[in-house]
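Reopening this ticket.

The earlier resolution said the output was attached, but the attachment link was broken on my side. Pasting everything inline this time so it's all in one place.
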Amino acid sequence: MTRIVFSGGRVFTGRATEPGDVVVENDRIVDVGIGLDGDTVVDATGHTILPGLFDCHVHFMFSGADLVRSLNTPFSLPFYEAIGNMKATLQCGITTVRDALGADLGVAEAVRRGLVQGPRMQIAVNMVSQTGGHNDDWMQCGAHISPPLHPGLPDTVADGPEELRKVIRTLVRHGADIIKIASSGGVMSPRSNPRHAHFRDEEIAMIVQEANAAGIAVMSHAMSGDGILTAVRNGVRSIEHGVFLTDEGVEEMLKNGTWLVPTLMAPRMVLDQAAAGMAISDVILDKANAVVSQHFQSFQKAHEAGVKIAMGTDSGVGPHGDNLNELTLMVEYGMSPAEALHATTTSAAELMRLGNELGELAPGKLADLVLVEGDAEQHVKAGTLKQAVRAVYQNGVSQL
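Inline output:
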């Protein structure tokens, strides 16, 4: 076995950085300390060594919010675009993700088998929505405008507990590692309102029951205050976005140990693309503008109260590879740089139930490492972390 030592750098401990070396044998970290030896030395002097980073909310099969472009895209092209999307995400230091809608089992297997380069991933396959909900793509003209359903992407619009039981079992059959639902309307859907709650208690209870039976968790797109509450009290593991989070919602999340994945970048990405000239409807732009300031306030409320937070971006709504901008927004709205790094390492690993293998630089963990030139915490604060990444290792293998 080749023993590689990353020597002379500063190691992120989960709460701060301190001088240290990291030793890797094959795909595992075997030692962390001072003055360690190895067969091969990687000089990390002047660098921060981070664990592999996480993004808990991406969409590799999407490449922006331009409706006209998507309507003129051949069916199979997004699969090829996903190869570049995954590579761009990995190269900014993100070695593990949750794909929250779009990637099917074949996309995940291509990475697992080493056919293409990308982060390891948990996939939701498709998002479960009520009729007229956030994943119902029916337009007023009668057309459906989302990517077409195919053998790897089943229909997941359903109503009532028994229809939903069937949908969850179908998603499990199709390889879902996580179930994603929409317990409120959203910004990007044509006919839903982000302030309205979707699904009733008995429906979400059924979804969670079936997911638990399959040994997987539920994540909920939830913007409205009532939609957050319904999801939390029925046992979802994480709230995605949490835009109109109320004090009652915070209390319920704390009581139930529910996670928040804020995706602060998401509405900004929509507005940035519109400003660049992309074809985005006025309805969607109005919704994006309406949620931005409230989104930040809710994030601050959750953070100050001690709600568990893991990093996610909603990349795919906007460009892939800019994911680390989310950390800077988290700092801008109340987190310390170390807290933001914790949210994208140890906390995210815990949310995804991967804490035994990932999220820390510790003996026995998988050798996912990111070398950042200079002080990683300062880069997070300044918004320059991506530009400072000098090396990315996944399972002990260099990815750059």
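Reporter confirms the inline version is readable. The longest helix spans residues 282-305. The domain at 3-51+359-398 is CATH 2.30.40.10 (Urease, subunit C; domain 1).
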